[in-house]
C-alpha cells in the first residue's frame, strides 16, 4: 500500500490530541504515542497490559529527532549507531538527564531507532519528532502484523490505526547496547 498523506495527517492529528495509535513498522504493527505526553504513554501501557517498569523504545525519521534523548556517550558508540541508521537497528544509549522515567522504566538507557520503513518514517516526519514504538499486542501475546488484526484486538481502544504494510522482517528489530555492542534482544 502506497503512503497516503491524508491518512498520515489523520494519524498525526490523533497523536497531537494525546491518542495512542497503531502503525506499520519493519516487522509488525506498532503502538505509538507522543513520548513526552505522560498520559498517552500511561494509556499505551494500560492497553498493552504491560508493566511500566519495562520502558519503551522510540523511533524517528532522522537522527535529529532522537538526539535530544541521548546523554553523554563515547564518540565511537554514536558513530556505530549512526552508521546503522536509517535501518532496522535499535540501540540502547545513555539517556539524557531530562528524559522522563515513564519512557525508560527501570532502565538507565533509552532504546532508539531511526527507521527506514516508509510508513513509519513518514509518520515521524509528519509528526515532527520521535514516537513511542512498541509491538501492537497485549503483553506476552504475539505481535500483530496487519491493520485488521490490530482492529480485532484493540478496536475502539485506539485513537487511530494507520493502514499500511509491515516491512520484510520476520520479527521485531534486534536491540543492542550502543556502548558494549551486546545483543539485548535477538
Strand order of the largest sheet: 7-1-2-6-3-5-4-8-9
The largest sheet, given as strand count, sense and whether it forms a barrel, is: 9 strands, mixed
Q: Helices and strands, in N-to-C order?
A: HEEHEHHEHEHEHEEE
What is the number of beta strands?
A: 9
Give the amount of beta strand, in percent: 15-25%
Q: What is the CATH topology descriptor?
A: DHBP synthase
Rg, Cα atoms, Å: 15 Å
Task: Kindly report how far apart the N and C termini lie.
Answer: 28 Å
Which structural category fits the helices and strands? Answer: alpha/beta
Looking at CATH, the homologous superfamily is DHBP synthase
What is the mean pLDDT? 95
Considering the chains and any ligands shown, give keywords for the structure:
alpha/beta; nine-stranded mixed β-sheet; DHBP synthase; 186 residues; globular
What report would you give on this structure?
With 186 residues, the chain is α/β, with parallel strands linked by helices. It has a single domain, classed as DHBP synthase (Alpha-Beta Complex). The protein is built from seven helices and nine strands; from the N terminus they run αββαβααβαβαβαβββ. The protein has helices spanning 5-16, 38-48, 63-67, 75-84, 101-104, 118-127, 147-154, and strands at residues 21-24, 29-32, 57-60, 90-94, 109-114, 131-135, 160-161, 175-177, 183-185. The chain has a nine-stranded mixed sheet with strand order 7-1-2-6-3-5-4-8-9. Strand 8 (175-177) and strand 9 (183-185) form a beta hairpin. Helix 1 crosses helix 6.
Amino acid at each position: 500500500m502506497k503512503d497516503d498523506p491524508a491518512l498520515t495527517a489523520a494519524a498525526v492529528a490523533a497523536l497531537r490530541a494525546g491518542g495512542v495509535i497503531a502503525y506499520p513498522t519493519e516487522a509488525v504493527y506498532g503502538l505509538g504515542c507522543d513520548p513526552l505526553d505522560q498520559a498517552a504513554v500511561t494509556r499505551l501501557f494500560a492497553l498493552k497490559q504491560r508493566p511500566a517498569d519495562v520502558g519503551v523504545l522510540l523511533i524517528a525519521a532522522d537522527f535529529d529527532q532522537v538526539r535530544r534523548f541521548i546523554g553523554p556517550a563515547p564518540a565511537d558508540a554514536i558513530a556505530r549507531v549512526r552508521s546503522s541508521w536509517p535501518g532496522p537497528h535499535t540501540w540502547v544509549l545513555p539517556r539524557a538527564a531530562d528524559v522522563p522515567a515513564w519512557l525508560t522504566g527501570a532502565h538507565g538507557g533509552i532504546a532508539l531507532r531511526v527507521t527506514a520503513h516508509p510508513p513509519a518514517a513518514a509518520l515521524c516526519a509528519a509528526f515532527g519528532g520521535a514516537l513511542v514504538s512498541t509491538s501492537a499486542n497485549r503483553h506476552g501475546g504475539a505481535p500483530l502484523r496487519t491493520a485488521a488484526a490490530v482492529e480485532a484486538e484493540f478496536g475502539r481502544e485506539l485513537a487511530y490505526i494507520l493502514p499500511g504494510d509491515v516491512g520484510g522482517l520476520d520479527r521485531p528489530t534486534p536491540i543492542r547496547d550502543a556502548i558494549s555492542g551486546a545483543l539485548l534482544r535477538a
